[in-house]
Amino acid sequence: MSSTGESVTEGKGRLSELDIEAIEMFINFFKLIGLPKSVGEIYGLLFVATRPLAMDDLMERLQISLGAASQGLKLLRAVGAVKVVYTPGERRDRYVADLELSRFASSFIKEELRPRLERSLQRIERMEGLAEAMSPKERKAAFERIDRLKHWMEKGQKMMPWILKFLVR
């Protein structure tokens, strides 16, 4: 191991111990919020990369398909977690991680989480309509559970502005 934390044999297709640790951490983080493993792999590698990486570099080092790399980069760019950087004389795009995760988190909340909560509230309304058609005993039990769901969703919606305020400096 060199003093920089990189494997002495590191080269194309190799990951350092630092790369692996970062990748595993971001895989776990992104899985927690429902994103694919490949998104965590891409962001983790870009996060610790000392230079911008092209898509084919990511594919080779992470051993992922073109589709996984393309979709992962597209999603990460859409939420502002990754950006394209210009490299003089290069025809292919190179990517770097935006190290300000608060932007990613606030974008994820606005673009992904808030719409999911809204769809859940619409689904709860449909559930209430379906519960109306049940027998009185079943309807009472169904409405108790539906009311619990509504409570959770309302709490989630109330927390969103606070979470966004906390994340944005």
CATH superfamily of the largest domain: Winged helix-like DNA-binding domain superfamily/Winged helix DNA-binding domain
- Gross CATH architecture of the largest domain: Orthogonal Bundle
Structural class comes to mainly alpha
Shape summary: elongated
Helix content: 55-70%
Tally of DSSP β-strands: 3
- Any low-confidence stretches, pLDDT <50, length ≥5? 1-12
Please indicate the count of domains.
2
Q: Distance N terminus to C terminus?
A: 37 Å
Overview of this structure, please?
With 169 residues, this protein is mostly helical. It folds into two domains: 81 residues, Arc Repressor Mutant, subunit A; 67 residues. It is built from six helices and three strands, in the order ααβααββαα. It has a three-stranded antiparallel sheet. A hairpin with an 8-residue loop joins β2 and β3.
Question: Which helices and strands, and how do they pair?
Answer:
Layout (H helix, E strand, L loop, with lengths): L16 H16 L4 H12 L4 E2 H8 L3 H13 L3 E4 L8 E4 L3 H32 L3 H32 L2
Antiparallel strand pairs: 1-3, 2-3
Helix pairs in contact: 1-2, 2-4, 3-4, 5-6
Summarize the structure.
With 169 residues, the chain is mainly alpha-helical. Helices cover 67% and strands 6% of the residues.
Question: Keywords, please?
Answer:
169 residues, single chain, Arc Repressor Mutant, subunit A, 6% strand, mainly alpha
